[in-house]
TrEMBL record:
Protein's UniProt keywords contain Lyase: yes
UniProt KW Lyase keyword: yes
Protein name according to UniProt: Dihydroxy-acid dehydratase
Organism encoding this protein: Rubripirellula lacrimiformis
Lineage start: Bacteria, Pseudomonadati, Planctomycetota, Planctomycetia, Pirellulales
PROSITE patterns the UniProt entry points to: ILVD_EDD_1, ILVD_EDD_2
One of the Pfam families matching this protein, by short name: ILVD_EDD_N
EC numbers for this chain: 4.2.1.9
Length: 686
């Protein structure tokens, strides 16, 4: 060891007892660290075993496979061996020739039979979905089918906020969809797929996977929502306890209490209409689920029944000769965008709906299509994070959910009512029964009785919503800082900063950041100068090329719940969580590292923002502060910000995703892989 110091450490040996069921502790020893070898503690792994407990062969399943001359002559060896594998796992050999259905889910964690955690999942959204898998499997067996289950778990955008894990968030969606499709294709005899998923990336990936295997009888089962606490903050607001505590706006005791009790129940997606809940709504709007499936309370009988109904629906599709391709049409996409606008859904669906369309082989809707639909219909749903009250998602479900929203849209003459659903009915046929059906009445009565809430205060008539100042959901500002466009959830800007004519106007000094970490430090007042009212935060280099297009809810949530936050605007080439509110403008194109002019903004520049919530127009401009140069001349004379760079910790996997999705149309194309275009570019010079 030469002149290196030799450190002495002390440790206590821990060993399993002879039965392997408990721990015994050995004596403390002093050991020279430099001499520690793996074999110093091997004895704890080599306990005496009963040799008779080790089996070397087994009898195997009883009975025989129901083979036939045709099967043995015509089936592949793989299909025949698959039967051997099935009975090897304990399946009744008399039933192995039934129709095969794959139940594909995003299950995460390991639950004990009583629901207590053995190993945690990443989030509540995939914690209980195994119960849906079980219910669907049992129903398949009632139809004499053969259920299979496979799992592709998903990350939590809430858990990864502000961390390096966010660099993998959006790219994961494409990866998961590919793995799901590979699993579907790897079960050659499957007739249909029942996709169980809940949250921000797992559910869009599942929709992409089922859309991409459109020749099968596929059905989505949304994983539902967690309940809000009886007393306490919702899971959107609670993500700001760090910022509020640092700014002195809540105590340590308050932060500790609220952080503990926010998730009222252990399963389901968050209690707000963020990306997870909006994806559930969109899946139902597209006809990919049975009626009234989105946003059911996780773990409850009404939720479990949806899995059984979905198994029935997939079986029914097989019987009728229908497939997912019969469901996913241009009209289905239109209905999805229409209902997205009506509920005030997450802007992340502007990435996911085009991706689902691409997977289904349909024309991808662009910003112009979303703008046109949002001009048709104002938001008329009052659900978190939008106001005026901000009801949790379970109340939206109880008020009637997607069918209630669709019913109002049909009354407006906007819904494509002949679009089909996996239930074997058109939207017209569903809605003809909806108003008088028992399910609607029971749910709405329960909302009144349990929470004292009038269902028509959650899902209003469009006329009432308009009279209360609710506006259309999404606006696409352009300007000299975003010549290719940008996105803002205009309906969720704090109404107190909107002028009487319905227009948001802000002219402020730029505070430029090239990392979210530095921006949140300034918001918390941990760096100088701290963010203050009137500032315009310009966060650059956080698009797909920069870091995988991270979600910046850590920033937007802090601005929402800090006392001065509504007086601060944010402009970025990153994206936002579905629960984000306020004057937050994202998806700026081109992104800074693709040569976008947003890369040239400097601290102190004057930024002019206008969002017309009536006409859904707006701009984000750098303006000249004197008469010596125009804004265009200022931008033309500058180079990119000196600190702008690709995120040093950006994973290689994400760099690959960024390059591939760029060939598929980038952010405005849904961040998808256009294989033909990628191949064309790779072979162009060969």
């Amino acid at each position: 060891m030469g002149g290196q110091s030799r450190e002495t450490i002390r440790f206590e040996t821990i060993r399993f007892d002879s039965r392997g069921t408990g721990l015994t502790r050995g004596r403390c020893m002093a050991v020279d660290r430099s001499s520690i070898r793996y074999d110093c503690c091997m004895n704890q792994f080599f306990q005496a075993l009963d040799p008779d407990s080790i089996q070397t062969h087994a009898k195997g399943p009883s009975g025989s496979l129901p083979l036939s001359d045709e099967i043995l002559r015509q089936w592949t060896s793989g299909d025949i061996f698959g039967l051997t594998q099935s009975v090897g796992m304990g399946f009744d050999p008399r039933r192995v020739l039934g129709d095969q259905f794959l139940i594909l889910s995003t299950q995460g964690g390991v639950r004990a039979p009583d629901g207590t955690p053995i190993a945690l999942g990443y989030h509540t959204g995939h914690w209980e979905v195994g119960l849906l898998v079980q219910a669907a499997a049992e129903q398949i067996c009632k139809h004499e089918g053969v259920p299979f289950a496979a799992f592709v778990s998903d990350p939590c955008d809430g858990r990864s906020q502000g961390t390096k894990g966010m660099f993998d968030s959006l790219p994961y969606r494409n990866d998961a969809a590919m793995v799901m499709r590979r699993l579907i294709r790897s079960l050659p005899q499957r007739k249909g797929v029942i996709g169980v998923a809940t949250c921000d990336k797992g559910l869009p990936a599942m929709m992409m996977a089922l859309a991409g295997t459109g020749h099968l009888a596929n059905v989505i089962v949304p994983g539902g929502v967690t309940l809000p606490p009886s007393v306490g903050e919702d899971s959107g607001k609670v993500q700001t306890i760090g910022a509020r505590y640092t700014r002195g706006e809540m105590s340590l005791e308050e932060a500790s209490l609220e952080g503990c009790r926010s998730c009222g129940t252990p399963g389901g997606g968050c209690q707000f209409l963020g990306t997870a809940a909006t994806s559930q709504v969109v899946a139902e709007a597209m006809g990919m689920t049975v009626p009234h499936a989105a946003l059911a309370p996780s773990g409850q009988p009404i939720w479990t029944q949806l899995a059984r109904d979905s198994a029935d629906a997939s079986h029914g599709m097989v019987q009728r000769g229908e497939t997912m391709s019969d469901i996913l049409t241009d009209d289905a996409l239109f209905n999805a965008m229409l209902i997205h606008a009506a509920v005030g859904g997450s802007t992340n669906l502007l990435l996911h709906i085009p991706a689902i369309a691409h997977a289904a082989g349909l024309k991808r809707p662009d910003a112009a299509a979303f703008r046109e639909i949002n001009r048709m219909v104002p938001r008329f749903v009052d659900c978190l994070p939008n106001g005026p009250v901000g009801h949790p998602t379970v109340r939206l479900f109880l008020a009637g959910g997607v069918p209630e929203v669709a019913w109002h849209l049909r009354n407006l003459g906007l819904l494509k009512t002949q679009a089909r659903t996996v239930a074997g009915m058109t939207w017209d046929e569903i809605l003809d029964q909806w108003e008088s059906c028992e399910r609607r009445q029971v749910c709405r009565d329960r909302l009144r009785d349990a929470d004292g809430i009038d269902p028509d205060e959650v899902i209003m008539t469009p006329k009432v919503a308009k009279s209360r100042g609710l506006t259309s959901t999404v606006c696409f500002p352009s300007g000299n800082l975003c010549p290719e466009g940008s996105v803002i959830k205009a309906t969720s800007i704090d109404p107190t900063v909107i002028d009487a004519d319905g227009v948001y106007r802000n002219r402020g000094r730029a505070r430029v950041f090239v990392s979210e970490r530095d921006a949140i430090a300034a918001i918390k007042g941990q760096s100088e100068p701290a963010i203050q009212a009137g500032d315009v935060i310009v966060l650059i280099g956080r698009g797909p090329i920069g870091c995988g297009m991270e979600e910046t809810y850590q920033i937007t949530s802090a601005l929402k719940y800090l006392s001065f936050g509504k007086q601060v605007a944010l402009v970025t080439d990153a994206r936002f969580s579905g629960v984000s509110t306020g004057a937050c403008i994202g998806h700026v194109g081109p992104e800074a590292l693709a040569g976008g002019p947003i890369a040239k903004v400097r601290d102190g520049d004057v930024i002019d923002i206008l969002i017309d919530r009536n006409e859904l127009t707006g701009h984000v401009n750098l303006v000249s502060s004197d008469d010596s140069m125009t804004a265009e001349e200022i931008l033309a004379s500058r180079t990119a910000h000196p600190d702008l760079q690709v995120e040093p910790d950006m994973p290689e996997d994400t760099r690959l995703w960024a390059a591939l999705q760029q060939a598929g149309g980038g952010t405005w194309g849904g961040c998808v892989y256009d294989v033909d275009e990628i191949v064309r570019r790779l072979t162009k010079d060969s």
